[in-house]
Design brief:
Elements (H helix, E strand, L loop, with lengths): L21 E8 L2 H13 L5 E4 L7 H5 L6 H27 L12 H27 L23 E6 L7 H10 L4 E6 L1
Antiparallel strand pairs: 1-3, 1-4, 2-3
């Protein structure tokens, strides 16, 4: 049996890595008041694709960021109305069309007798709308985010506050954005690669 020849991979055949793409700029703040003031300044500077990260809910941060109201209640309402109409159609079709059974002169379809079923389908569809609407609006599940590579960002769940401005924002310029974040009180600013 002839010997098997093993060859070393050549330098050209080694996996070539593409240079990292800039995700954005991450700024660290030490207090809630600094974060709120910075959020107002970033919004006034015209940035649209940016986010704040805090270890606990901060009252007034949504207003400082200029965030619109969530669409989730409308999704829940639409899902609940779908469940209501679907439940109503289900009990009507089963009682009046598919299996009409007249007993003691009672009507073929009676709404009061079927309210519990209609209520349950409304609640069920509303719950599905809330869960799946929240997942879709929050772009979840997302197993990786570029900010997870930042060692500094690990403190976002402990005691630090952050603002991340994405590089695909129309107003984004690396130098100007970093200068703005330093000017509004950031204690540290770093570029984050994707």
């Amino acid at each position: 049996m002839p010997p098997v020849e093993l060859r070393e991979p050549e330098a050209e055949a080694v996996e070539q890595r593409t240079p990292p793409v800039l995700y954005g700029v991450l700024a660290q703040f030490d207090s809630v008041t600094d974060l709120l003031a910075a959020a107002r300044e970033v919004r006034q500077a015209g940035y649209k694709r940016w986010e704040s990260y805090t270890p606990f809910p901060v009252h007034g941060l949504d207003r400082a960021m200029g965030m619109p109201a969530t669409r989730l209640p409308w999704i829940v309402l639409a899902a609940g109305l779908t469940g209501l109409l679907g439940g109503l159609g289900l009990v009507w079709w089963t009682n009046a069309v598919n299996y009409p059974w007249v007993i003691s002169g009672k009507p073929i379809f009676s709404l009061p007798a079927n309210i519990p079923i209609i209520f349950e389908t409304t609640v069920l569809f509303s719950a599905f709308g809330a869960v799946f609407g929240m997942l879709i609006l929050n772009v979840l599940p997302r197993l990786h985010h570029p900010l997870f590579a930042s060692v500094r960002f690990r403190r976002s769940t402990n005691d630090r506050f952050f603002i991340a401005i994405e590089a695909d924002d129309p107003c984004f310029d690396t130098v100007e954005t970093v200068e703005l974040l330093h000017r509004v009180g950031a204690t540290a600013v770093e570029e984050v690669a994707d």
